[in-house]
Amino acid sequence: MSKKTKKGGGKLSLAKVSEALTALFNNNPEKTLSFKQIFKALHLDSHPKKMLAIQVLEEMEWDDYLSRVADNSYKLNQKSQVQIGTFIRKGNGRNSFQPDEGGSPVLVTERNSMFALNGDKVRVSYLARKRNHTKEAIVTEILQRAREQFVGKLTVEKDFAFLTPDNNTIGRDIFIPRNKVKKGVTGDKAVAKVIAWPDEQHQTILGEVVDILGQQGDNDAEMHSILAQYNLPYKYPQAVEDAANQIPAEISEEEIARREDFRNTTTFTIDPHDAKDFDDALSIKKLKDNLWEVGVHIADVSHYVLEGSIIDREAQKRATSVYLVDRTIPMLPERLCNFICSLRPDEEKLAYSAVFNMNEKGEVKNWRLVHTVIKSDRRFAYEEVQQKIDAFKLENKSESEQFSAYQQIMAEDFKGKENDFLNECLTLDFLAKKLRDKRFKNGAVKFDREELRFDIDEKGKPTRCYFKKSLDANQLIEEFMLLANRYVAEMIGKTSSNSSTGGKDRPDGITPPCGGGRGGRKPKTLPYRIHDSPDPEKLETLRSFITRFGLKMKSDGTKGQTSRSLNQLMDDINGKPEQKLIETVALRAMMKAKYSVHNIGHFGLAFDYYTHFTSPIRRYPDTMVHRLLTRYQDGGRSASESKYEDLCEHSSDMEQIAAQAERESIKYKMVEFMGEYIGEEFDAHISGITSHGIYCEIDENHCEGLILVHDLDDDYYEFDEKNYCMIGRRRHHRYQLGDAIRIKVAKANVERRQLDFVLAE
């Protein structure tokens, strides 16, 4: 270990001594080591080497990595240097550790990862660092694996097989003994379970095949592989299907007698054209001039799915239906979600209904929550209702003309099937617009984001790619669902103890029919849909960012001022070139909505109380809400807060996972679609910028791909994270989020779900 070695040889350095000392103390976390023991363990047999070690030991003490026990002995400072948290794996090897106690993520290089995978619960020790160097951690123990099953492509050899996972977060293949491939062949998409993880003696991940999904490239196999990748179910347990098949579809006369009868009230559903699970319907009846009864009827799932049953346990585990590009993976068995519970036309159905008496200003004069029996008169697709609204607008072009025409229609009696419920639809549209205007006036945030959609042929191949915008017909349904969700939440949560007006400011002006506390009592337990105020730091970044466009955003820190400022900003940028850019930055400041029994209100909607009541076929929290409302209306006591908070957390987690799977299916179809256009050029705009490249969205079809930074060969480009841009070091050319750009499609790798662009000449 001579210091006089050739350049590039084994010269002893501060870095090497630091690395050796770190390993020594990490391997002996409880021991106090003297100079003599340290010198012996590291084979430091000369005075210069020992002095070098002492220098490093002093730096490690200064860095709080070691504690000096005596004049000549040290011990690992475990209190500040050992933590438990989550491992976050990155494809580029710059992994990180997120402490459970909070704080910023800490770098974990690949050699210090102990083969931890994304999401694993780990224990780490912090490495000694020199002044101004990045803090690093080393994984010392993997406490809990985030997952044990992986999906990928199978390769079968004569004596062995291996699975190449679809994503690169493992960083290696899974070795599979030949007798554990489950009749799989090379090219199959398969699910493998890990039966042995790497350790110091064995570097291989050992697994066994648990399911064969089909050949790679087959549409069903690829969609199932996306679900398996996120640990989502891609088939229904037979025992649950059998239980659903035992549920009778007939409604007894005794059950009908217990309910309010809406079978003779005009009722219809409005859903996507390909929907089968109709979990909400609207009814409308004119009571007198300028007063209408509007019923928001929701499928009564909890009547059929009993708490604790095998169907309920499966629904609870799934927590949500999953919507991929070409299919729905339902939360409930098909017999329930598409047949028994679905509010299909011309069939008697059980519902749980919020019934509102509303005037022409969209004000609720009275309301009630009741179990009902309904019979839908018509199944509308959104497009059909939108055609009615568009024709009305075309005939009455100005706002004043539209208002007068609305008033005339609403003054008339409804004609029902005679004019295909035209007057009913337009009346509901008018009332919905009043509700929407009032909501935005009260501070709801105006984010109307477009959604990428595909037309798919019978083999699952995408034939068209387009953005779907929320139109009047969608907003009609949205507003009445929001109304029902808000009133139900207020009924339970709004009490005299949390209202400055002693409960008199309740929207209905009446004593809550169930659950709401009185005289200072704590409200009964209910899962709320909550949305916190924006992240202050990200909001400040937004405020600073928009100044370059001559824009300002005022905020005094209150929710109302923040939402008003955001809405004013959205109005100011509407139709301008920088609109998408600023909307993207603004969305990054928003917090994610989630479920909790601890209500903090919903910032985005500007509601103090909000829940999910209107989609129990596809969301488990809505089923929970139905059960609790029924319990409280029957005089039951408040439910366990801790039990329902756990269910809320699980539902929030599953919602995020389902959204990730949906995005992954969109990405797959997008790459598959663009595979037909290799070498072709398109106009695009920059939709995202990272350290490894520029994301561009094609203007024509909204498909997004990546220009890798090393393909920007006219300069050396550096990423400016604060200003969302890439800047050339020599020529100072700037690529900015939102810029127009001309691209050429270079690669479309469906296996990796990766679309690569290059700059057009």
Task: Describe the structure in brief.
With 761 residues, the chain is an alpha+beta fold.
What does this structure look like?
With 761 residues, the chain is of the alpha+beta class. Helix content is 31%, strand content 27%. The protein contains 19 helices and 34 strands. Helix 1 packs across helix 3 and helix 11 packs across helix 13. The N terminus is likely disordered.
Write the layout of secondary structure elements.
Blueprint: H1 14-27, E1 32-34, H2 35-41, H3 47-62, E2 66-70, E3 73-76, H4 78-81, E4 82-88, E5 95-99, E6 106-108, E7 121-126, E8 137-144, E9 149-156, E10 160-165, E11 174-177, E12 188-196, E13 205-215, H5 219-229, H6 238-245, H7 253-257, E14 260-261, E15 267-271, E16 280-288, E17 291-299, H8 301-304, H9 310-318, E18 322-323, E19 328-329, H10 334-340, E20 348-359, E21 364-375, E22 378-381, H11 382-395, H12 399-411, H13 422-441, E23 451-456, E24 462-468, H14 472-493, E25 528-530, H15 536-545, H16 559-573, H17 579-589, E26 594-596, H18 620-633, H19 641-674, E27 681-690, E28 693-698, E29 704-708, E30 717-720, E31 725-728, E32 734-736, E33 740-749, E34 754-759
Parallel strand pairs: 11-13, 14-21, 15-22
Antiparallel strand pairs: 1-3, 2-3, 4-5, 4-7, 5-6, 7-8, 9-10, 9-12, 10-11, 12-13, 15-16, 16-17, 17-20, 18-19, 20-21, 23-24, 25-26, 27-28, 27-33, 28-29, 30-31, 31-32, 33-34
Helix pairs in contact: 1-3, 11-13, 13-14, 15-17
